[in-house]
Design brief:
This protein is an alpha/beta fold. It has three domains: 130 residues, Spore Coat Polysaccharide Biosynthesis Protein SpsA, Chain A (Alpha-Beta Complex); 113 residues, UDP N-Acetylglucosamine Acyltransferase, domain 1, CATH 2.160.10; 135 residues, UDP N-Acetylglucosamine Acyltransferase, domain 1. The chain contains seven helices and 35 strands. A hairpin with a 4-residue loop joins strand 26 and strand 27. The longest helix is centred in the middle third of the chain and has 13 residues.
Length: 393
């Protein structure tokens, strides 16, 4: 059995906030799977641990080191051209990509933030996706949907689509898992595959254009428009118009409104007609809040929307500006465009004013939200939220 530890560097972990406030990089979903799940598909017998910031360790533990163990950069997605160089690594050897360490083998425990002592480093080139910035989540999503689709569908047959009122284009690039329901919809996979997970639902009048993923038990609401490069993670409920965006899991945007070039964490809710801007009126590149410098930094991207941490909620008709970053467990509402950066555990809106969100109330709301899906916070998740509340960003 292979043993892999997916490691975050302090810099990579900081760059991917607010998504990494509650998870290591390898638990970010890009394509159909999270990065950890991709490696499990790539090496089916793999045993996986994490090396990340200490407060995440209870929920994302490492592995005991008793034999040579492969450390991989948490934002690195598998690709077939990585197989040989990774399997050829000897203890004390590493691989670099564009000057950054992406893999090494060792028999020692390497704590978060510590550089390994390596005797040989080999630079490589690869077609693998490597997640290093927030915009790359949506920029890489279409590529990773196609790669995950090929992995999932290889050697398998799709569940037949029986609804006579659903129109299909590119049927050979549509894969439907058992239990899924599609009625009176349009599925267009001519320019990219469409994956529909177990017990997923695509309701009447919806349009889905690939590459797209409607994951297990996710729902596309009546009359929705799911544009290319979009992933609805497990148990998400999404309506309106969504393009080039990712919903991690258990998040809702059940009504009309536009979301583009964005990433929504787990257990979030966007109220009716909530909309974001993903393009500036002057067609200049978008700036994003940087948690390291605590100021807006250029992204080099013309299209860039909203990045939302876990457990955050937005009231009806909330407007998010181009390149907005929202932390964990914020409760945002009110008129006008919201601020470009909304810290974790914030209550209110730009026009009404932002105030700290009382922690006990925030936890009460999270527990009520999860109870609707017969879930509750684990001890590890509660420890993470407590840490974030006690150590403001």
């Amino acid at each position: 059995m292979k043993r892999i530890i997916l490691f975050d560097s302090p810099e990579s972990h900081a760059k991917l906030k607010p998504l990494t406030f509650t998870r290591p990089l390898a638990d970010i979903r890009v394509g159909i799977h999270t990065i950890q799940e991709k490696w499990s598909y790539f090496w089916p017998d793999v045993e996986i641990g994490f090396s990340t910031v200490p407060y995440l360790a209870q929920a994302f533990p490492s592995l005991p080191i008793s034999s040579p163990t492969l450390y991989l950069a948490g934002g690195l997605c598998p690709h077939e051209d990585l197989r040989k160089p990774l399997e050829a690594l000897l203890p004390g050897e590493g691989l670099t990509l564009r000057g950054e360490l992406i893999a090494f083998t060792t028999e020692e425990v390497i704590p978060f933030g510590q550089e390994p002592n390596l005797k040989a480093i080999h630079p490589i080139e690869t077609q693998a996706s490597w997640l290093t910035t927030l915009p790359q989540t949506f920029l890489l999503n279409g590529i990773e949907i196609a790669r995950d689709f090929d992995q999932i569908s290889r050697g398998r047959s799709s569940t037949p689509l029986h609804d006579p009122h659903t129109v299909v284009y590119g049927a050979d690039r549509i894969f439907i898992e058992p239990g899924a329901s599609v009625r009176c919809a349009i599925l267009n996979a001519e320019n990219g595959p469409i994956y529909i997970g177990k017990n997923a639902v695509i309701q009447e009048g919806s349009l889905v254009i690939g590459p797209a993923c409607i994951h297990n038990e996710a729902m596309v609401a009546w009359g929705s428009k799911i544009r290319p490069n979009t992933t609805l993670g497990p148990v998400c409920r999404v309506g309106g118009e969504v393009g080039n965006s990712i919903f991690h899991s258990y998040s809702n945007k059940a009504h009309d409104g536009f979301l583009g070039n964005s990433y929504v964490g787990a257990w979030c809710n966007l109220g009716a007609n909530t909309t974001n801007s993903n393009l500036k009126n002057d067609y200049q590149e978008v700036k994003l809040y940087n948690y390291q410098t605590q100021q807006l930094e250029t992204t080099g991207e013309l299209f860039c929307g909203t990045f939302m941490g876990d457990y955050t909620k937005a009231g009806i008709m909330t407007l998010f500006n181009t390149g907005t970053v929202v932390g964990v467990s914020a409760n945002v509402f009110g008129s006008g465009f919201q601020a470009k950066h909304i810290p974790s555990f914030t209550w209110g809106g730009q026009m009404e004013g932002y105030v700290p969100y009382r922690f006990s109330k925030a936890i009460e709301v999270i527990q009520a939200t999860m109870a609707r899906r017969e879930k509750q916070l684990t001890a590890g998740e509660m420890a993470i939220l407590t840490h974030l509340n006690e150590n403001p960003e």
